[in-house]
Amino acid sequence: MSLPDVTHPLEEADAEAAFAAILDGTVADEAIAQFLAAMSDRGETASEIAGAARAMRARMIPVSAPANAIDVCGTGGDGHHTLNVSTAVSLVVAACGVPVAKHGNRAASSKAGAADTLEALGLNLDRAAETAEETLADLGICFLFAARHHPAMGRIMPIRKALGRRTIFNLMGPLANPAGVRRQLVGIARPAYVPIYAEAIRRLGTDHSMVISGDEGLDELSLAGGNELAEVRGHEVLMRRVSPEDVGLPQTPVDAIRGGDAAFNAAALLALLQGEVGPYRDAVLFNAAAALIVAGEAHDWHGGVEEAAEAIDKGLANALLNCWIAALK
Q1: What's the CATH number where 259 sits?
Q2: 39 to each of 30, 61, 77, 213, how far by Cα in Å?
Q3: Best label site of 72, 94, 201, 314, fewest CB within 10 Å?
């Protein structure tokens, strides 16, 4: 099959058909690389992102999840190499009683992705994949290792690596959660793409989601200053700005939460769960508050920050991590 010309934006159905062919292996590698680069140069549209995500969803290995399950993840590729904020947020939010179907992968551009850090903490990733539905039902959390749930992506990885640049595939992953969650907190590394990405989520269907991006290109809510935020409820998209001061948290430079390798990030996450205060905790509280609002567990930012802090300070999030690790041995 030949891929369509992307000089002009594709309709959603045409984008879905093109990515179905790409994922099914009916297109030559060189043609895929040219197609992805051309689309990236022009700038991906909401209809293209939604169509591509539909093709990816149709080929994933799904898991069952409670109707109120949420996901907290970022597109990655922001280049800031921060500590694992969304992984920590997932544990804190799950400790608040919200089922979290955490979708993630190993690091692509950073030193430690969610999978790398969880493995360094002692989580058996093979067992986590095998028992995802069980741990989500029993403990309220699971890790959905993207590499296992999206086998069609296997042949695409070498093409993406050879291109060495961001493509629409960086945007598709969070929109293809194997648990089919309808509530999400999604961080993207490009502030200008927040409304475009929010429109893609609206097209795909959601109960309540937030798309967030720090002004410096962080794929999570940033303590360093302002953040672009799009809130999607059903067919409604509301754009707004939010800063740490708005939720009672201090402004802090990104360097304060600079991460390292998996062992370094795992040690920092453990210290956080055991009560260590500082910028990492503040970043987690900020993002956890957003996730709790998305889940309907908190009514406002201050309430979300307070509930997240309580889950840490009472040892609930740390206990959950220990139970999860023990359950997978």
Answers
A1: 3.40.1030.10
A2: 14, 27, 18, 22
A3: 314
